[in-house]
Write a structure and sequence with these properties.
about 260 residues; disordered N terminus; about 35% helix; 4-stranded mixed sheet; alpha/beta
């Protein structure tokens, strides 16, 4: 991977950001300091809040699903498809996981640093895992933050997650969200969301981050312990109502890398 920085006389802050990005691209074996993370979090929040909750993006761009803390997968994506600003990206959320993986912090730091450096070439949506109230502080990403730094670093990351946009429309045709459900039946529900916010306090929007697609369900129903599943009917109705052609979610792992369902 050849990574170039297009700058003339960078400030000290820009130089530090460049160094963090370059080191993460170099090997992934980076000794981040708590001060590095705090600086990145301070800079990313106003950038995210300057964007609408429902993004409107033009192509061409690459849409990427859940990373789940896999740093090498992220580096492989950038190596194969080129890193920003050469290629524009939309990531659909779930940057960390509850599993004990070793470089979840680096995944988020790299994405945040690239967003700061190239705000118009990388866009980050919020996923189900970007909610401090929904996941225990004694598992996965939280434990990594506490063992390597402190609980306050985990809390600082989640203050950034509270600023993330929730969905995007690409080329006025493709609706992109981490997980959708018929509880969010109107785009104004997303547009009207005030950020920063904890998504668990947003009623139907919480349902949109905990619902799952099932081909055999006609519209939607609650199963198991209150889990919401939805089917092709709900997707088709939503798309037709908003004159959209396709919905892109990242709520399931599929062997082929992507799966077309519900004719959309």
């Amino acid at each position: 991977l050849i990574f170039r920085f297009f700058t003339t006389t960078p400030s000290r802050r820009e130089s530090e950001m460049d160094a963090i990005i370059a080191s993460l691209f170099g090997s992934g074996n980076v000794k981040l300091q708590s001060g590095d993370i705090e600086t990145i979090c301070d800079q990313i929040k106003p950038i995210l809040l300057s964007e609408p909750t429902l993004l409107h993006l033009d192509g061409p761009l690459k849409v990427c699903g859940d990373l789940r803390g896999q740093l090498q997968d992220l580096l492989r994506i950038f190596s194969t498809l080129s890193a920003p600003p050469a290629t524009k990206y939309l990531f659909l959320g779930n940057y960390s996981t509850t599993d004990p993986l070793p470089h979840q912090i680096e995944v988020i730091v790299l994405l945040f640093a690239l967003k700061i450096k190239y705000p118009n070439h990388i866009f980050l949506l919020r996923g189900a895992y970007e909610s401090s109230s929904r996941f225990r502080v004694d598992s996965g990403f939280s434990l990594e933050c506490q063992e390597r730094f402190s609980k306050s670093i985990w809390e600082e990351f989640h203050r950034c997650f509270d600023c993330l946009p929730l969905a995007a429309i690409v080329q006025k045709k493709i609706f992109c969200i981490n997980v959708w459900s018929p509880l969010v039946h109107n785009l104004d529900t997303i547009r009207s969301l005030d950020r920063p916010c904890d998504i668990s306090g947003q009623g139907g929007l919480l349902g949109s981050l905990t619902a799952f697609f099932e081909e055999g369900i006609s519209y939607c129903e609650f199963v198991g312990r209150g889990n919401l599943v939805y089917g092709p009917g709900g997707v088709t109705e939503f798309l037709d109502r908003h004159e959209l052609q396709m919905m892109c979610c990242s709520d399931m792992v599929v062997r082929e890398g992507f799966l077309v369902s519900a004719h959309h």
